[in-house]
Amino acid sequence: MDQNMRQQHMFRREYFGKSLAVLCGMFLIVLTIAIGAFLLAKGMLTFTQVHHSIGEFLFSSAWKPSDTEMGGGQVGAAIYIWGSILTCTLALVISVPFSLATAVFMTQIAPKLGERIIRPAVEISVRLLNYSLVFHLSFMAGSALSYSFLSSREYSTCRTASPYWQPASCSPS
Among 24, 62, 150, 167, who pairs with 67 as Cys (CB 3.0-4.6 Å)? Predict the structure, then answer.
């Protein structure tokens, strides 16, 4: 009877763990879709209310947005898109040969040395990269939130969080 109770307890714990993992996974999927829908809805306002074209957005490199509904600004993202593509390409050109060389060294040339020394070093570097990514994302989110609170309609005194961009309605001082 004691063995049967243990198996039922283990089954409940395992079922709870699987259910929790599925629930968290579903939450992340819904959250990702919600973020995408929010960005799509807010981004479409550039094309529907301010009347910029998709061609201008994709192929122009001039970025001088206007905060009026009449438009007048330029929202070219080509330079940012190409900068992202080139940065990713450069990162791949640098990292893929090192990754392949490390993998071959760890598995074929010196498996004992690779298991004892190189594998922990690789795992530590991956963790540091993840911590760095989380830090940068939280910093960007904090900056965006503070900017959105500072530039609300009640605080519209031509002061923004960025010293490089002022609304078009403000005259330079």
Answer: 167
Report whether 94 contacts 87 (CB < 8 A): no
Quote the longest CA-to-CA distance of the chain.
Answer: 84
- Spell out the per-residue pLDDT of the chain, length 173, in tens: 677 778 777 778 888 888 999 999 999 999 999 999 998 888 888 788 777 888 888 888 888 877 666 667 788 888 888 988 999 899 889 988 988 888 888 888 888 887 788 888 888 877 777 777 677 667 666 666 555 554 444 444 455 444 545 555 555 54
Rg, the chain, Cα only:
25
Contact 105, 116 (CB under 8 A): no
CA-to-CA distance for 59 and 57, rounded, in angstroms?
A: 6
Q: What is the pTM of this model?
A: 0.51
How many angstroms separate the CA atoms of 155 and 147, rounded? Answer: 11
Count how many Cα atoms sit within 13 Å of the Cα of residue 20 in the half-sphere of its side chain.
6
